[in-house]
Each structure stands twice: as structure tokens, then as C-alpha cells.
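**Protein record**
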Amino acid sequence: MMNLNGNKTNYLTFKGATREFLRHTTAHGLHSAGYGKKLPLKIFWLVLFLIAAVLFCVFANQVMVRFYQYPVHVQETETQEVLLFPAVTVCNLNRQKNTFAARRKRVVSSDAAENQAWLKLTPAARSAKAHTLTDMVKQCNFAGAICDVSDFKTLTNVQYGSCFSFNTKKLKTSKKPGQYEGLQLTLNVEQDLYISSTPVAGVKVLVHDNAEMPFPEVGGISVSVGNEAAVALTKTKFSRLTAPHGDCEEEDINEYGYMYSRTACLSTCVQSSTYKDCGCYDPRFSLPGNNSAEVCSSVVDGDTSSSQYQCVDEKMTAYLAGMLSCICKQACEQTQYDVDVSLSKWPSVKFQSQVVAELGLDTNDPEASQQNLQKNYVSLRVFFKSTVHREVTSQVAYTAWDVTADIGGVSALFWGVSILTLVEFIEYIVTIVTIPCIDYKPDKVRNDAVTFLAVYRKRSCL
């Protein structure tokens, strides 16, 4: 065939392209398989190349299987530094003062009726009937400095009335371990104002992250009156991975307006499921978002025969049995405080007079003051056991770079193949596909030792 200039042109064939590829390839074995002196030698090298190819596929498959198992390495480290002091929430075990219950004697005739009346109240009304911060917190000291009401935040809780969280606004730190570098509280539970349905006199104490919503009904420790609780803390910070290497929740703020926590998620799930199927919210759980939402009247009234009550009861049963379809993951970033609690009789006989004077009790009647302390007061000390905290970090154990390195190592071991060799294979494939469009110059191939693509000149396929 002649071109426009009258010169003869030779179009490349599949056989010719393959021979050129085998002549120039850097892949081990292929050159010998294509240009061996004798046929048995060619077959020998071809068989070796195919065996190496199979072994490469086997090992490469193992590499990919490992990668898609998404392995995780957990690293634990210990660091000593100035620690942010956690939030400490205290609740009176008595949810409301009996002075208010006494005013309702004509309508309250039993504990059940009193409970129904309590559940009917709005959060604001419950807070008004509960023990107040100033009545309950009689002494507050942090690291030798006096703290006041501005260091506390008041929260309304269905089970405990009002709870008070320390260190959620003006955040404080601990530079040293020990009880004198932490929080010291003297609390008055006002047992004389307890309602008849409260079986234990004392406080509920919950230590948690500063930005996390406390749920004292599902955690914390109880301290009875006439005792001092020493709560030694150890801080652990968890850093988890999201999918596909982990299964944690990245959400920052939950429906309660606090940092995400699994406990808050479960509470939200119960309420959402109850509202969806029963048309109301269970007053026994904290209400996310709008606290004025409609509560289940049948639960408040104790009407066990109503369909609404039975619906709510079914939800509660499913929740307790773990059968409620709640997808509540662990938080990706979580700070946990492990506590060691020791209880002591408080105050001692010799120290009692000093406590009486500090609290402004009757110093003229030591016996009555002692009875008052044993009946109504609790001492609480919360502190770090050590300023060394633990960090548990989940890390990707096998990355895409590791896959590339391992596959590269395997290919080099069996084939001697590098990235440039792969380019040669791609060039060969492109050449085969574009055979009708290539003007082959064999003389240039023999006289030119540069790359394979340099020996071809494209022409119009039209």
C-alpha cells in the first residue's frame, strides 16, 4: 500500500507488536520466553512466568483480603499533664420537699397518687418544689479556693427533682493529685423535708465529662448521711474510628443540647419510639428538645387498662430486654472517669465542734448538733488519684500505602515488575487496540533504543 508521498508503508500486526513487546519488556522471564534460542527453553521460561503469575495472584489476593478486613491497632499511652477537672453532679435522693406535699393532703392519699401528681408537673414546677442549691450546698471548696453558686448549673430530673452540676461553665483544672487539690462539698439533704416515699437519705453523685449530659438515674454512686465519700478519679480518653475501620458516632451535639453520649442516644431512642407508636412521651425519661411536649397521661394517672399505657409498657419492656431497634454507637471521642470510692464516718468526735462552728449550727447543744450532722449532712471529696491519664487510640493497622508496598514487593519478587514495567504492559495493550492507526517503522526500531512508543507514528484512521 502507498501513502500520499508514494512511499510504501507497513502496518503493524498483532504478531509484530507482541514480538516488539517481548524484545523490550523488563518483566523477568518474558524476554526469554519470546526470544529463547530453542523451543523447549521458550516453554520453560513461559511455564516459570505463568507459575510466578499464579503465585503473585495468590499473594495479592491475601493482601487485598487483609485490607478489606479493615484491621485496627489499639495504642495505649500514658501522659502526665495538668488535667481538666470533670463535672460533678450531685442530686438529693429526695426529689421534692414534703412541705408542698402537705398542702395537697386532700388530694394526695398514697405514694402512688403523690407520684402521679409529680409526673403531671412541668419541669419548671418540679424545680420549684425540689431542694434548692443554696439550701443543699453549705460548703464548697476547690483546690483551697472557695467556690459559689456561679460554679453550679441546675438541672431538672424526673427521679431526683433538681440536680446541681459543678464545673460545667467556668472550667477548672487540677495541677496536682490528692484530695486537697480537688472538690470538697458539705451538703445538707434536709431529711426533715423528705416525702414518705423516699427510702434512703443521702445524695447521688455522678462524675462525667464537662460537656456531657448527666443521667444520675442510670449511673453514679449514692452516699448516705453521716458519711464522707472520698472519690479518687482516673481519667481515660478514648479515640475511636468511624466506618469502615470502626463503628463510632461523630455527632457533636445531641437532642438535649449536650455532647453526644450513648446514654443520651438510648434515652432519645426510647422517647422517639414511644412518641411514634403511642403518640406521647414517657414522663419517666428525660425529654429531648422540647420539654413541654405532651406526656403519656395514662402513665401519669396509672391507668393500666388503657391502650396508651399498654403501648408505653411494651416499649419499656422492649427497651429493658434490649429489643428496641436503637442504633446507638460509642462516641468517637470520649472521656471516661473511673472512680475509687471510700466511705468514712463523718465527722469524727474531735472534729465535730469545728464542723458545727463552720456550718453555723447550735454550739450550745453539742448533742443536738451531732444528731443534726448525722441526720442531714454529707461530706464529699472528689479528686484525681494521679495527673497521669491514659489515652486509648484506635488506629488504622493496614493502610492503602501498606497495600501498595506489599503488592509491589510481591510483584518484584515473582516477576521483577515495577511501575515502569506496568507502563510497558499498558503501552502494549494500547498498541494492540490501535493497530489500524499505527505506521510501523522497523528500521527505526533496530536503530533506536528508546521506549517502545517512540517507534510508532500515528496516521489518520479515516
Observations:
- DSSP finds 15 helices and 20 strands in the chain.
